[in-house]
Structure formats: structure tokens, C-alpha cells
Amino acid sequence: MSISVAALIRPAKGAMVLSAVLTALGAIVTLVPFVALHNMAAIWLDGQVRTGWTGKPWVWAVIAVLSLFVGQLLYLFGLGVTHEAEAKLRHRLRGNVVQALGSLPLGRVSQVPHGAIRKMVCDDTAAIHTLVAHVPGDVTNAVVSMVVGLGYLVWVDWRLALALFGTWAVAIMIIVSTTMRGYSDITKRFGHAQTALAAATVEMLEGIKEIKNFQATDATRTRFNAARQQFSAISFDWVRRSGRAISLLGSLLRPATVFVTVALLAALFVAQDWSTLSATLPFFLIAPGIPEGFTVLVGLMQHIYESQLAARTTAELLSEKPMPEGSRTQEEGPNPGQVEVCEVSFSYEPDVPVVHGVSFTAEPGTVTALVGPSGGGKSTLARLIARFYDVNDGVVRISGVDVREASFSWLLSRVAIVLQDVTLSNDSVHTNIALSKPSATRAEVEAAARAACIHDRIMRLPEGYDTVLGEVGGFLSGGERQRITLARAYLQDAPILILDEATAQADPQSERAIHEALSTLASGRTVIIIAHRLATIRDADQILVIEDGHITQRGRHEDLVNQAGTYSEMWRAQELHYMA
Ligand SMILES: Nc1ncnc2c1ncn2[C@@H]1O[C@H](COP(=O)(O)OP(=O)(O)OP(=O)(O)O)[C@@H](O)[C@H]1O
């Protein structure tokens, strides 16, 4: 189901309509003081004799003051209505965005850069503010003020009005057609560049250490610099175009210019006897205010574009198909601890399959190793087992249950996954370990940390388990961070454990500690491990060689090492490498 921008802001529609009506009334009432002044001028300047209250200037003065007050009140009330509705809508949208992210396939969410998510949750929902809170009031006020003002001028003296509008129309057409060409396209590119810069900034902050190493030689190689340069180039172009249009329109429509234009036309009309002196007065009073409506509209135009782009990004996210959750919440499956991958095919992009009809079974309590050349599909298979994505064909069964039929919590209680990229939050060590079981006591967290061979290191941190990671003293090495995630998996106590390159970031000493932690963690569980170091998995119960999305060899180490094929080649190459 696709969600449109209109559907996104629908909850605020009632308030927007009310605001438009109130501000339209306000704009009409605000014109009354000028009508009053015109009438006063007709009595004083033209010496018109009227009977009743219409002939009393002081009555017109009172009407002028009252209507000014009521007009402002209606305008402010209209703005207040939409601001309240927008605040509620923003709160709701932020909730919806976070909820949508939670229900998308995990693999899809991890593809969205953190910066883009931050922009969506914070900036985009805030940008919708203009669309909801200001467009109904300010646009209506500007349009109605102009229309009513112009209408009144036509009513007072249609020929003078025509002369004035004609002068404006020609001048505006020339300015707009020459300066605004391609404006919509550049505004779109400006929005995209903004998103790219936000994503690259977060990426840079997260990987500042690596970026520093590379930046030492060539700063422009980083994605951040590219995004920054692109953003600057586009924003310069955008500012130049919009600046040119705004300043030219501004000069034409500023009150002094309008006053002079009216003065010249009025002098001509009075001299020719086409108009009376009092009839020219509304032109001097109302005409300089009319362009304010244009200025408001031009100023709002940019905000409206930004709002629409932001709303579209949010609408696109909310339109994405959520991953349906199965209904099994408690009941154990028929084959506890078993992983069955049956005729599974999968592609990230349509028509580019990366896993083709793969089948294997990992029996409870056994170790299955996935090995093979880079890009073969090992991580993809691991992610499919943990249901980061849904398979295109075939089925993945955990404990004999199709993963699509189980609830996420059921799956989480059966499958623990330790990924290549260690993600720890800016929180205490305790909270980071207890992520898999928030109710865990300190004793349980400590037991998990001991099993993951990281307890001693944690005790050397300034505040022990209460040290906030990432803050002063709370820095851990890659291998140590990995052991924190192992402790987390240990605490999760799932019967199935998926390890993706668990020693990728570790130094040799840390690697030993990780292997010790791993054997504690693995005992009694079904383990599926992705490993590049074949020596670490030579005791595995089955080894699957994954190449180009297929299983090309399977068996135990002793069998495979004596067969001609990728495994024996990899084994020999690694033996030579480690002997060297
Ligand atoms: N999120 C993604 N979107 C599109 N293609 C992807 C994505 N992740 C992986 N791929 C592609 O799928 C194929 C398999 O990748 P995968 O990461 O599963 O391989 P791998 O065997 O684990 O590699 P490595 O040993 O280098 O980690 C590769 O061609 C890769 O480029």
C-alpha cells in the first residue's frame, strides 16, 4: 500500500480547513479599515454629503479600529489551530516512522544509513510543519488579502486598477520566466544532497578513526567530503537562482516602488479627469500592501517544496511493506534446536539472485561451518536463517517451524546472532550486555561476561559494569567489543547460535580469548559459523562450501581436505600463509 503526502497529513486536515476559513475571514475583515478611510476621504476631500451614520467620519474611525482588531484575532486564531494540530501530527508521525522501521525486515533497516533515519525522525517531521501549520493560514491570508484588495480597487476605479495590475503582471512575468527555470529540479537535488550529507556525517562520526587514517593521504576520498562538496555546489546554485528571483521581485514590489508606480498612474488619471482624488486614495493605501502577499507566497514556496520532499520521504518509508509476524509465540517446534534450510533462493535486487536453491540441515547441538570465497553468499544465508530478510523461494525452519510462522520474540528466544559489525550503544556495559534480556540481574550479566572472557576487562573500567561505553574511560578494543556481544548472546541463551566472522576485528591475543569464549558459548547449542580461518572450524560436524550462492562441497574437514575442489585449495593456501 502506497501512502501519499495528502494521506500523511490527513489527521490535521480538519484543523487546516478551519484555519483557512478563519484566516480568509480575517483577511476580509482587515480590508475594512481601508474602506473606512476611503469613505472618510470621500466626505472630507470630495465634500460628499451623506445622511445617517455613513456620513459621520468618527463612526468610520471606530469601524476601522474594531475591524483591525478582529482581523488580527481571526488570523492568529487560525494559526494557533494548525500549530496545535501539527504538533500532534508530528508526535504521531515520529511514532509511525519508528514503528515502521521496527516492522521492516531487519536487513532493510540496516541498509538505511543512520543519518537518513535521523533526518527522517527529526528534520523531515519538523519540515512538514510548514505544510500543515503555515500553508493553510499564510497562503489563504496572502491570497485572500490580495484578491479582496484587488477586487476592492477594481470596484473603486477599474481603469486605474487595470493600469496598475497590467504594469505588475508584465514585470513579474519577465522576472519569473527568466530566473525560475529549472527551480523545481534543483530544489529536489538540494533535498537529496541534504540527505546524503546527513548520512555521510553520521557515517564519518561513526568511523572517524578509519577515516582519519585515510584522510592523512587524501581528504577528498571520503564520502563525507564528496557529499559536502556536492551539497555546497548545489546549495550555491540554489541560493543564486532563488536569490536572483527574490531580490528582483522584492525591488519591484517593495512599498516605495509601488507607491511611486501608483503616484505616477494616479497623477495621470486625475490630470486626465479619469479619476477623482478620493478614488486614488485606496490605491495609495492598499496597493503597497498587496505585494506583501506575493512576498509571503514566494517565501513560502521554498518551504512548501522542502515540506513536500520531507513528507514524501516519510510517506515512502511508511509505504514500505512491513515484514509480517507469525503467530507462534510460545509452543516449541517439533525439532527443537534444528535449523533446516530447504531449497532457499534469495535476491536483494530483483533478478540478481545471490542464493540459489540451497538446502542443508544443522542438527541440534552440532557445528555447521559456512566457508568459501568472498561474496559467495555466506552472510546472506546467515541473515536469512535469522529472518533479517524473507526468502524468495523455499523455506527456513527453526526447530521445525517455518520462520514466517513464528513471532519475532519466539525467533529471538531461539536464535542468537553475532555479526561482523559490532554495534554497541552509548550506554553502560551492563545495559549493552543485558540488551538480549533486559530483566537480567547484575549476577546474570556478570556470569555472561565471565563466560565471554570479558569480566576482568570490565572490572578494570572506571565504573565497572556501570561505565558508559564511548565516554571517558569507556573505550574497548574491537576484540573486547566482540566479546561484549558474545556475552550478550550468552545471556540470550538461545539454543541456536549464528556467528558471522566473530574474530574479524580481533588481535591474536583477543582472538584466543574469543575462541575460549566461543567454546563455552557453543557447548550444547546448534552453531552455524561463518569463518575464513579454516583451522578454527576443522572440528565442525559439517562444512559447507558456498560459492556463487550454491553449496559446491559439503562434508567434514577430513573428507573435504582430500577432495579436489575449493576447500582443499583454500586449506593449502591458508596453511602456506600461516606457516610463512
Ligand atoms: N544489502 C545488500 N544489497 C545488495 N546486494 C548485497 C547486499 N548484501 C550482500 N549483497 C551481495 O550479495 C552477494 C553475497 O554477499 P554475502 O555478504 O552474503 O557474501 P559472503 O560470502 O558473506 O561474503 P564475505 O565473505 O565477503 O562476507 C554479494 O554479491 C554481495 O555483493
TrEMBL record:
SMART domains on file: AAA (SM00382)
Keywords assigned: ATP-binding, Membrane, Nucleotide-binding, Transmembrane, Transmembrane helix
Pfam families in UniProt: ABC_membrane, ABC_tran
Membrane topology according to the record: Multi-pass membrane protein
Domain of life: Bacteria
Keyword flag Cell division: no
Domain ABC transporter: 339-573
Subcellular location field: Cell membrane
Entry's Gene Ontology molecular function annotations: ATP binding
Annotated InterPro entries: AAA+_ATPase, ABC1_TM_dom, ABC1_TM_sf, ABC_transporter-like_ATP-bd, ABC_transporter-like_CS, P-loop_NTPase, Type_1_exporter
Parts of the chain that traverse the membrane: 12-38, 58-82, 161-180, 248-271, 283-305
SUPFAM superfamilies the record matches: ABC transporter transmembrane region (SSF90123), P-loop containing nucleoside triphosphate hydrolases (SSF52540)
PROSITE patterns found in the cross-reference section: ABC_TM1F (PS50929), ABC_TRANSPORTER_1 (PS00211), ABC_TRANSPORTER_2 (PS50893)
Protein name: ABC transporter ATP-binding protein/permease
Protein species of origin: Pseudoclavibacter albus
